[in-house]
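Board work, copied verbatim: Maf-like protein
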Amino acid sequence: MGTQQSSKTRQHRQDVVAKGALNLPLLNRLSGKRVILASASPRRQEILASIGLHPEIIPSTFEENLPKSEFKGPAAFEYPVETSTHKALEVYKRLVEQDEDDPPDIVISADTVVVKDEEILEKPLDPLDNMRMLAELNDGKCEVITGVTIVHPVLEAPGYKVRSLSERTVVRFATNPAHLLQAYVDSGEGLDRAGGFAIQGKASYLIRGIEGDYNNVVGFPLHSFCSFMHELIEDEELTFV
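↓ predict structure ↓
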């Protein structure tokens, strides 16, 4: 009975690949599959939707509380990969436990951090802290690192495969006078952002330029993700059981 219900669920589930999407190996492979995005971020959803991919949204319950004290120096760049791995595995295992006859074909997760001088920048504690962060970034640079993890089922134990990638983008801030920094702080936009700024929002006027993928700074390195997936498909490493 469970198998029949799961089969019906899959038949009635809307295709994650939109009509008119690009004819890409990645999208062709994912068409008709159960694709999960383990994130509630509207920005990540928009980036994936730009190529016609509309995954099922099931946010992870992982608390993202890995001790940042263990990720200092060069290890800071490993933090988003570790976090995205925990997020993807939590969602994958939860869905398998809920219905082993209707497991996800692939779970995608991501985590983005801002790093300055090999130290992870948290979200500002308050407007004063936001101003402090922006003053440190002003006329300087930081690096935005996103870790992306996919989990998909395989026949070998433990029954799933975890694969990850990371992307790094340099963000260069202009030499902004204090009143411009204060105007941004007063907007309140940066209070809920790691590093205290959002490049796709009002902070764009503070930034002189970037080196790397803009989408990565927003929250999802689309080009690297697609290239990564296409390589797995070409090497026949991404199969659905």
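Residues 79-98 form the longest helix (20 residues).
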